[in-house]
Amino acid sequence: MRTYLDHNATSPARPEACDAAVAAMSLAGNPSSAHREGRKARALVEDAREAVAALVDAGPREAVFTSGGTEANNLALLGCGRPRVLVSAVEHPSVLQAAPFAERIAVDREGRIDLSDLDARLASDDAPALVSVMAANNETGVLQPLREVLRLARGHGALIHCDAVQAAGRTGGGWSAADLLTLSSHKLGGLQGAGALVVRDGLPLAARIRGGGQEFGLRAGTEALPALAAFGAACRAARDDDWERVRALRDDLEARLLAAAPGAEVLGAGAGRLPNTTAIAHPAVDAPTMVMSLDLEGVAVSAGAACSSGKMAASHVAEAMGRGDLARRAVRFSLGRSTTLEDCARAVAAWTAIHDRLARPSHAA
Fold first, then answer.
1. CATH of 3-11+241-364 given 3.40.50.720, 3.90.1150.10, 3.40.605.10, 3.40.50.300
2. What is the percentage of the chain residues whose pLDDT exceeds 70?
3. Which residues pair with 143 in a beta bridge?
4. DSSP 3-state of 90
5. What is the DSSP track for 212-267?
6. How confident is the model at residue 310 (pLDDT cuts 50, 70, 90)?
7. By CB neighbour count within 10 A (0-12 exposed, 13-18 middle, 19+ buried), where does 207 fall?
8. Which of 14, 195, 233, 335 could staple 20 via S-S, CB 3.0–4.6 A?
C-alpha cells in the first residue's frame, strides 16, 4: 500500500476533472474555428475560463490560459515591460530562473518577506518596478504578508505579481488583489499541462508565444481542451474542500514526527502556513536519504521543488531563511483533500522506523 503525501508537487486528479477531460476529448472542433464544432469547443474553453476566474474573484476576460504555472510566471515577469524586477529570495525556480537579473528581497528566519528591505529597495530607484512575491511557499507552506506587500508596492507605483499556485483553493488572503496572478491546474486536482495568468484591468503585456493570437493575443497556440475542461472542473470542486480537516491532520502528523525524532525542526513553524504543509529536517538523516527511505517504506514525499532531473539539491528556501544548517536535511510532507488519518499513521511509522535504523546511537555506532 502506498501513501501519497506530495500534493504540493501534484495533487491527484479529481473525479470531476477526469470526467470533464474525457467529455472534452469527444469534441472534434478547434476553438478558433467558426463552424458548429468549433463553437462547441470555444464554449468549453470559455466555461472553464469562467470557473478559473471565479476562484480568485476575477473577471473571465482577465484569465489568460497557459500550459502551467511556469509559463504564467514567465509571461508575467518577462512580458510586463518593467525595467526593474524585485523578487523574494524564496520564490519558486520558475520565477528565479525567469528573472535571474532581478533584485532579491530578503526574508526573515521564518521565511516571511522583509518588508523594510522591500520598502528600502523600492525607495532607492524611481524606475517603474514589478514586485513578485508568492502567496505561499511551495517547500515550507509559509504565507507571505501580501496585503502589506501590496500597500508598499503601490505606494511606490510598482506592479505586483503573485505566484498563487500553492495558495489558490487552499487559503485566502490579500494575494487575490495582485495585478498579475499565477495559477496551476494540477495543484488543484486538475490535469498537468494547464495554468493561467490572471491579468487585472487590461494591464498591457507583451506576448512570449506568438502566432494565431489566441488568449486575447497574449498566448498563441490551440487551446488544450481536455486540460482546460479539467482545470475548470477542479476550480469548481475546490470550493467544497475541507482544509480545516487537513490542517488538523497536518498538525497531528507534525507533532508525531517531532516526537519520534528528538532534535528534528520544522521550517517556518512560527509563521502562518498553508494548512497542508510541513517541511521538517531530521537531525541526522539527509534529505535524499530520507526521501528514498520513505519511498521504500511506501511513503511519497519531496525535498525542495520538483524539477526535470529529479535530483534533490540543497533547499535555497532554507538558505534564504538563514537556516543553511537545515538546507540539506529538510523534507516536505504535503497533504491533500484525499489524505486520511491512516495515511498519516503510516508516514509516522515509516519515519520512526528510519530514525531507529539510521539515527539511534546504537545503530550509528
1. 3.90.1150.10
2. 96
3. 136
4. coil
5. S-TGGGTS-S---HHHHHHHHHHHHHHTT--HHHHHHHHHHHHHHHHHHSTT-EET
6. low
7. middle
8. 233
pLDDT of residue 311: 64
Interacting residues of 177 by C-beta distance below 8 A, sequence separation 6+: 146, 150
* pLDDT, average across residues 104-116: 98
CATH code of domain 15-238: 3.40.640.10
| Cα(112)–Cα(144) distance, integer angstroms | 6
Please determine whether the domains at 3-11+241-364 and 15-238 fall in the same fold group of CATH.
no
CA distances from 38 to 44, 223, 234, 345 (A): 10, 12, 23, 50
What pLDDT sits at residue 202? 78
**Residue 307 annotated among the catalytic residues of the structure:** yes
Domain ranges of the chain: 3-11+241-364, 15-238
**CA atoms of 69 and 166, how far apart (whole Å):** 10
Give the DSSP letter of residue 187. G
Q: Each residue of 205-222: pLDDT tens digit?
A: 999 999 999 999 999 999
**Per-residue pLDDT at 362:** 52
Tens digits of per-residue pLDDT, 192-207?
999 999 999 879 999 9
Query: What local confidence, expressed as pLDDT, does residue 309 receive?
Result: 47
